[in-house]
Design a protein that fits this description.
Number of domains: 1
Order of helices and strands: HHH
Number of helices: 3
Oligomer: single chain
Radius of gyration: 15 Å
Distance between the termini: 36 Å
Structural class: mainly alpha
Largest sheet: none
Shape: elongated
Strand content: under 5%
Number of strands: 0
Helix content: 40-55%
Amino acid sequence: IKETIKKDLPKGFQTAEFVLEHGFLDFIVDRRKMKEQLGNFVKMLNS
């Protein structure tokens, strides 16, 4: 990425801690539970 955008990346870029601190959500879900999990996430956002 650094070579593509020709800029230095922040320390810890793409670590779980970095993305959490910057408002991203990342999780691993079994494919059979994906619809339920996404539904729960959308409900939480709409609350």
